[in-house]
């Protein structure tokens, strides 16, 4: 097989692909590979053609292609092409999310280069000032897990968010997404708000911090915190719910997920009084939380039924997935603390959102508080939320 490379560049217009392919076909040149895109109104195409049975000389073929290019209004370049022996690649999809600034591509590609990672494909989308850059990369001889850990640490230092997925998994359409509630889907920590109303804010906050960082057992910490709330009137819960602030972009993101066919679940170590209300307000498919015991219009300081800790969260998600006929690799889990560690680790895509270090270490990626809507780009919902950047 004798190959040539044909590159075409110019202002986009109808008929470019047809014009070039017509010249090749008329002269018995078989196209064995082709890549074409339009960027900022400019047409780019690269063709690999087999000229083994070409009817004319390569010089004459090049002349005809250039003439066709002049006729259409594009530049055409022809060069010999040697197909290199392909080794098995270790492909990953890396998505970078952050607020727009000069030098993002330079900063990220420098880090990739320093790790010997080869970039196979790059695309950029934007939404207002939020930039999302997706790279398909070959990690080559590097240890993928080691590279993932190092990239997350180094990219974070640049003020950007990063999500890393094996390419084969990234290509598969996710079907179920599970959110934690406190400091994830909503900006509040509900139990801290309850504690403030009960006058035990400092005691509860210390227990919350220890539980979220994994220093103490979640169930023990939860029961101790709830006992401190004994006697709190149920009207306080209603007031707190009325003041809940959804994380920026959360409502919009969930709407897009639903329109794209996702099942959306809220699985929280928080309380059903709030998870059920959010389910109704946001149109979620599932909502789970811990049930506060209420008697005579006041909290008793006890929890009814099972405790939703890290293990229970993972079990609930498995139940939902089985009920919906969804495989584990098609599940996305988003959370912020130690109580989310198992669901994040087990999911096909685990996102540590505005999270503690203990969770970032096991997640596929990290997203900052202000960048939740960037998850739309990671999941391929770009058409609705991101536009191609035009400057």
Describe the overall structure.
- One of its GO terms (cellular component) is cytoplasm.
- It is an enzyme of class 3 (hydrolase).
- This is phosphoserine phosphatase.
- The chain has helices at 16-26, 58-72, 104-114, 144-157, 167-171, 190-198, 201-212, 218-227, 234-242, 250-259, 272-282, 310-324, 341-346, 357-360, 375-378, 382-385; strands at residues 3-11, 30-39, 42-50, 74-81, 91-99, 118-127, 130-138, 161-166, 176-179, 263-271, 286-295, 298-304, 331-335, 349-353, 365-367.
- It has 391 residues and is α/β, with parallel strands linked by helices.
- It folds into three domains: 3-80, 2-Layer Sandwich (Alpha-Beta Plaits); 91-171, Alpha-Beta Plaits (2-Layer Sandwich); 176-200 and 229-386, 3-Layer(aba) Sandwich (Rossmann fold), CATH 3.40.50.
- α7 runs antiparallel to α8.
How many DSSP E strands?
15
Total domain modules: 3
Q: State the CATH superfamily name of the largest domain.
A: HAD superfamily/HAD-like
**Structural class determined from secondary elements:** alpha/beta
Tell me what the CATH architecture of the largest domain is: 3-Layer(aba) Sandwich
The main sheet orders its strands as: 6-7-5-8-15-14-13-9-10-11-12
Blueprint of the fold:
Elements: E1 3-11, H1 16-26, E2 30-39, E3 42-50, H2 58-72, E4 74-81, E5 91-99, H3 104-114, E6 118-127, E7 130-138, H4 144-157, E8 161-166, H5 167-171, E9 176-179, H6 190-198, H7 201-212, H8 218-227, H9 234-242, H10 250-259, E10 263-271, H11 272-282, E11 286-295, E12 298-304, H12 310-324, E13 331-335, H13 341-346, E14 349-353, H14 357-360, E15 365-367, H15 375-378, H16 382-385
Parallel strand pairs: 9-10, 9-13, 10-11, 13-14, 14-15
Antiparallel strand pairs: 1-3, 1-4, 2-3, 5-7, 5-8, 6-7, 8-15, 11-12
Helix pairs in contact: 1-2, 6-7, 7-8
